[in-house]
Design goal:
Elements lengths: L3 H16 L4 H11 L12 H9 L3 H20 L6 H14 L7 E3 L1 H12 L1 E4 L2 E6 L2 E7 L4 H5 L6 E5 L2 E2 L5 H8 L6 E7 L6 E6 L1 E4 L3 E5 L4 E6 L6 H14 L4 E5 L8 H8 L6 E8 L4 E6 L8 E5 L6 H11 L3 E5 L7 E7 L5 E10 L15 E2 L14 H13 L4
Parallel strand pairs: 11-12, 12-15, 15-16, 16-19
Antiparallel strand pairs: 1-18, 2-9, 3-4, 5-6, 5-7, 7-8, 10-11, 13-14, 13-18, 17-18
Length: about 400
Amino acid sequence: MLSQKKFLSRLLIALLVMANLSFGATTGWAQSETALPGPALHQNITELEINYYLSKMSPEELAATLKLFRAIQVVKGQYVGDVEGVNLMTGSVKGMVNALGDPYSVYMDPKMYSELMLETKGSFGGVGIVLGVKDKTLTVVAPIEGTPAEKAGIQSGDAIIRIDALDTKDMALDEAVGKIRGPEGSEITLTILRPAQEPKEYKLTRATIVLKTVSGKMLSDDIGYIRLSMFSETTGSDFAQKMTELEEKGMKSLVLDLRNNPGGLINESVKVASLLVPKGPVVSVISKDGSRETMQSTMDKPTIPLAVLVNGGSASASEIVAGAIQDLEVGKLIGVKTFGKGSVQRLVPLDKDSAIKITIAEYHTPKDRAIHGKGLTPDIVVEMPKEINKDDPQDPQLDKAIEVLKATAPTN
């Protein structure tokens, strides 16, 4: 008598042949993650290869896998219209990831995947909003500086309840991102809800969003200012260059502005932190099995006095930098509580055109504080005025940072 797994392996092979499905799009991730030998799997899947995947499954998972292939056969064989088997498998993958209930884990189709690749390289088409989910509501983490969204007055913490005529209540995060992005010059209407206010429509014209992530200047003879808008591929090196430039102009202390910085690439945030905090831990990444990977600062020169500006739009990688500075007591956080996104996503390609972005870990600060869902509370809480006069803009948070740095300056 055949064992259950042997029976299932032969049945699955038969079902695959009958369905004329390629298995490569759904198993390429496992091959790369487990370092199986040999080329990527395609239509010529073997019993040995299927047995490998079956060996990783519990009896309940085996039964569910069989049910999946039976369902594919029912739909493919009996649905009144034309059915593409590959589309069924793609839908299965999307549903599998959605079943996690994690807004930051998502199946990325070719359009989403290519847009993400453009974003990390520094440009994409849209209105300039970084999105998150808070209290199960689609929420603006931060508008990007100089973009249509920022110019229209969209703010960190705004709830987006409609995209054009579409209700966002049950909309996946990356689906919302895909709908907001589009060609330069095209229009979109976002309906925004703020506490104790009526919903308001914002009609925006999409533009090409170019991410210049580092800017800076001298505020006085010895106080420098650097603004980081997010962490993209060149942020670490651009920040180092800006630090050198300001030091050559006489900088002895620094205001680091992380307000409305929604995060980005973790390794770039560690590069930035390495120029600000002493040698040692910057952030620990805690995986599902409890294992810990600690990323280190390699700085071997004295730190300079720091004041770090944060707000509700400071999230993810910017919270890594702010958390390390606060825990290691090399600077003061000034502003209001940060967003609280402390989860780590890995992008796992399924093939050359699609991928799964999946939450694999949470990060902790050097003092082992978890940030996800909690955020960072500043050392000095300073609120911004609710209404800002563009002709006479006030920035009490920046004013407080300058005051703090002047108080720490050595006297002659």
